[in-house]
Amino acid sequence: MPIFDPPPNLSDLAWSLAATAAGRVTLMLRAAREATTWRSALRTLLWELPITVSLGMISWALTDWLSLQGGAAFVLAAMLGRFGPDRLEPFFDSFLAQLVRKP
C-alpha cells in the first residue's frame, strides 16, 4: 500500500529541499563562524546535510498532506528547516503531553 496515492511531483520535493536548505543556511553559517578550526566547521556542515534532507522530506510529506502549494509550501519547508529538530522536539513533547492529559 503506497503512502502517497498518487505520488507527489518530484519537483515539489526539489522545492522542499531547497526551502529547507534556505532555512538551515543561517544555522550552518553561524556554526561555521563559531568553529575554531576548518575541520570542526566541515564536520558541523557535514552533519547538517542529512538533517536538511530529512526535514525537506518531512516538509514534502506535510505539504502534500495539508494540500499546500506554492508559497505556503515553501514557507512551511523553510520554517521546518529554520527551527530544526532542536526546537521542534520540545514543541511536540509539550503538545503530546497536552493531548495525553486527562480532563
UniProtKB/TrEMBL annotation:
InterPro entries from the UniProt entry: LydA_holin (IPR032126)
Alphabetized Pfam families for the sequence: Phage_holin_3_3
Protein name: Holin
Lineage: Bacteria, Pseudomonadati, Pseudomonadota, Alphaproteobacteria, Acetobacterales
